[in-house]
Design a protein that fits this description.
The chain has helices at about 10-20, 25-35, 40-50, 55-65, 90-110, and strands spanning about 1-5, 10, 40, 70-75, 80-85. With about 110 residues, it is α+β, with helices and mostly antiparallel strands.
C-alpha cells in the first residue's frame, strides 16, 4: 500500500518509520544507543536522556523494538537484567541521524 504525498509515493513501512521517529524522545534515545556498541540498561538510558519518565522511556523502547530498531535481551538473573542495543537496521537509522546532527551542529558553528 502506498500513500501519495505531493507526487511522492510513500510506502506504509516508510510512514510507520517516520511516525516512530517523530515521537518525542525517540531520536534522542537512538542517538544515545548509537554512542556505544555495548548493551545499555534501562537506567543507563534514562540517565543519558535526562528528563524522560520511566513510562515514556518504556513505551519508546517498546516501539523501537517493534520497529526492529532496538533489540531487548532479558537475562534470567536475580534481579532480572534487561539490556537494549541497536539492531543492524537501528544502527543504520541512528547513523543517518548522527550525520544530520553533525550538519546541524556545523551550521550553528558557522
Amino acid at each position: 500500500m502506498t500513500v501519495r504525498n505531493r507526487g511522492t509515493a510513500l510506502t506504509r513501512a516508510e510512514i510507520e518509520l517516520v511516525e516512530t521517529l517523530s515521537a518525542r524522545w525517540t531520536i534522542h534515545i537512538l542517538l544515545v544507543l548509537h554512542t556505544s556498541d555495548a548493551p545499555w540498561r534501562f537506567g543507563e538510558i534514562q540517565e543519558a536522556v535526562s528528563g524522560i519518565s520511566n513510562r515514556v522511556l518504556s513505551g519508546r523502547l517498546a516501539g523501537l523494538e517493534s520497529s526492529d530498531l532496538v533489540s531487548r535481551n532479558v537475562t534470567a538473573t536475580r534481579p532480572v537484567s534487561i539490556a537494549y542495543r541497536l539492531t543492524a537496521q537501528g544502527r543504520r537509522v541512528a547513523g543517518a541521524l548522527a550525520c544530520l546532527r553533525e550538519v546541524a551542529q556545523s551550521s550553528l558553528d558557522s
